Amino acid sequence: MDSLRDTHPRERESDGAAVGAAATEQNDLVGKSRAIEHIRAMIRRLRRPNSTTLIQGETGTGKEVVALMLHRNSERAAQPLVAINCAAIPDTLIEGELFGYEKGAFSSASQAHPGKFRLADKGTLFLDEVGELSLAAQAKILRSLESGEVFPLGSSKAVQVDVRLVAATNRDLASDVERGSFRADLYYRLAVIQLRIPPLRDRREDIVPIARALLTRICGEIGMPAPVMTNGLLAALEEHDWPGNVREMRNALEHAVVVALDPGELDIEDLPPSIGAAPPPSGPIFPPGSERETLLRALASANGKKAEAARMLNCSRMTLYRRLERAGLDHGGARAVEM
Predict the structure, then answer these.
(1) Cα–Cα dist 320/269, whole Å
(2) Which of 94, 121, 200, 325 has minimal CB crowding within 10 Å?
(3) pTM above 0.85, yes or no
(4) What are the angstrom distances between the C-alpha of 165 and each of 50, 82, 115, 142, 287?
(5) pLDDT at 290 over 70
(6) Which residues are registered as beta bridge partners of 153?
(7) Which residue, 280, 331, 271, 287, is CA-closest to 306?
């Protein structure tokens, strides 16, 4: 998980998880889809309530950034935001990480540790990948949420804590409840407010804005101006399904920046092969003829869709754009070309 570089001075990182990584690794969600606008509106409405919030979405969709925004837009913003990646902490250590321990509570406890609940007192505790917790750990978290107190390991005294809990998962917790791998009582306690972030393939209108924001971020980190992204590259980004969502896109753009021959322009051929390469042809390959006639026939058969025309011609989209230019056809307006 990539951490935000400009975290709030009162925000803290846990072992194995940073406070916020992101849709664009910044402090806001980038996008113009209805789903993203709805999440922004919900964050504004949740400024005052301390209701426990469950953020659901596939890996890499930006759950961490939503948690960060919930904290920064809340009345607890001046207090700590503490995060812990539940999947990164062994079950034998999770209780000590969450609730703390006294010096000498176990053989390696050379000094006391307050635990994440106490570190987040008066602020927000973010439990990332909460679906990976064992049933035993779930029971202990539920008790602390309901009682508002924690028992550090090695201590017989309860410590009062006041935290707003935000949890995130890429799992279907409702299904896990039915299978018995997640406690129903904890699920209902966590899911008072539910925010669901759709994957990129379901909000393709967000792909280009996110790509521009990511590219600016990547280039800023390495101290170079952001290059121009060609239409061919943007088309390839929009057509890819992004199973790894924004995290996958960031890696793809970083790859493009590093390998690009022209530092001022990123083209489709600079993307990783799994994204930029043309897939196997799914339609007929047209016989040789005049270049212009061949291109016009392919575009007409593909209803102006350049990606489909490229498959018919057994070439990459970038090669198609070059052939269009060579034939005197404007590939920017190629969708309107008809026989």
Answers:
(1) 12
(2) 325
(3) no
(4) 8, 10, 15, 11, 63
(5) no
(6) 101
(7) 331
